[in-house]
Amino acid sequence: MINLKPNASGISLQQVAQSLRWLGWVGLCLQSLLGFIPILAVITAVLYNPVRQQQSGFSFGLWLAIFCLFILLFSIYWCFRYTRLANQLEVRELRPAKARVIQDLKWGLLANIGMMTIAVFIALSRVGELTFKMLTLPHGATIIAPNQTGTTVAQGALITPSNMIAIQAMINTIAAGLVGVVVALLLLYQVGQHRSFHE
After folding, report:
1. Contacts of residue 132, Cβ cutoff 8 Å, sequence gap at least 6
2. 59 Cβ neighbours under 8 A, 6+ residues apart
3. Could you tell me if 66 and 42 are in contact, meaning their C-beta atoms sit under 8 angstroms apart?
4. Where along the chain do its domains lie?
5. Strands, E, within 7-162: which ranges?
6. Alpha-carbon gap, residue 24 to 8, rounded angstroms
7. Helix 161-192 vs helix 98-135: angle between axes, to the nearest 10 degrees?
8. Which pTM value belongs to this model?
């Protein structure tokens, strides 16, 4: 068994590996849970959207949401990669250089910051659009909801359940990105405390 000695700061390579493994699994689980609604919302918007079928194409916002979804899936995979790096650190023959581990952590940090930025941009746009629709209603107006007898309302005058699901999906995406950023920053700090991985 390899004796992983602590360096001057008191943090051993074994502790770095444990942090990579533990935080990698925490990040993977939390991002997977938070990512369920965004993934479901994007798949639903792509497969079933009557407005899109009439327009025969994707809107710019939907393209951004799809791109954001791919970054989320990449980030979930990247958290799993942290656990594999932990296994490599514990075997001297497979141990990567410290610079490579830091580079991998920076990729994870960059991906999550990018995902949060896109999700915030989409959320600002969507919530702004819904706020504008609500502000166009006359002061004190009463909105009649459609029912089974065929009551009609001006299209776009209501905040529908699909609007709320979309907003929830954006909040979940931002939260998942925040989890990824925190995990990457904590791991960068831990790795930075150790001088060299080839002691």
Report:
1. none
2. 52
3. yes
4. 13-136+156-192
5. none
6. 25
7. 160
8. 0.78
